[in-house]
Amino acid sequence: MQERKNNAANDADTSDREIIMSRLIDAPRELVWEAMTKPEHVVHWWGPNGFTNTLEKLDFRVGGEWRHVMHGPDGRDYPSCSVYTAIDKPHHIEFCTGGTYKGDPKAMFDAMWTFEAVGGQTKVTIRLFFPTVQARNMAVERIGAIEGGNQTLARLAGYVIKT
User: Fold this and answer.
1) 83 φ, ψ to 5°?
2) Spatial contact of 16 and 23, defined as CB atoms under 8 Å apart
3) d(C-alpha 84, C-alpha 75), whole Å
4) Parallel, antiparallel, or unpaired: how do β-strands 65-71 and 52-58 relate?
5) Peptide bond into 90 cis (omega under 30)
6) Which residue, 110, 103, 121, 126, is CA-closest to 32?
7) Are the C-beta atoms of 113 and 36 separated by less than 8 Å?
């Protein structure tokens, strides 16, 4: 794996700027990995309950872009652009949302998704790293990032069981 500079995950203490969520999914890691990395799958489960997606681009490689629009149940559109910063198949994926590299000051957050094989199941852990404590708190309080993240994991679990 390539060295990651300015990675919030490597800072001594980022706990006041991060959110961690995890879920044990009743599916093998390879299937969960595919659901996260293939456009024909991710479009069906990404986002909190009630959201749908329009995928504009999913270039799954380090430096590749993932652009999509989440359509909320409130009728609003939420465009998103992320850049993949690290990929270690099938163990973890890292991407920067709103920026182009780890630690980019324009980034809304950096995300790390890990996929751990646990028997025939997969433990998926999401770590979101924010540039400031205030940005993290705003994501929790105003956007509902923890509840939304947990709903996203539940939708992923439901999707892979059906496939």
Assistant:
1) -125, 125
2) no
3) 28
4) antiparallel
5) yes
6) 121
7) yes
Structure tokens at 103: 């630690």
Residues 17-38, mean pLDDT to the nearest whole number: 97
Angle at 24 between CA 18 and CA 29, to 5 degrees: 100
Q: What is the mean pLDDT of residues 152-158?
A: 98
Q: How far, rounded to the nearest angstrom, does the alpha carbon of residue 109 sit from its chain's CA centroid? A: 10
pTM score, whole prediction: 0.88
Bridge partner list, 67: 57, 81
DSSP letters, the chain, are ----TT-GGGSS--GGGEEEEEEEESS-HHHHHHHHH-HHHHHHH-SSTT-EEEEEEE--STT-EEEEEEE-TTS-EEEEEEEEEEEETTTEEEEEESSSSTT-TT-SEEEEEEEEEETTEEEEEEEEE-SSHHHHHHIIIII-HHHHHHHHHHHHHHHHHH-
Q: Name the pLDDT band for 13 (thresholds 50, 70, 90).
A: confident
Two tokens at 156? 């992923």
* Adjacency order of strands within the sheet including 65-71: 18-25, 121-129, 109-118, 92-97, 77-88, 65-71, 52-58
| Of residues 38 and 1, more confidently modeled | 38
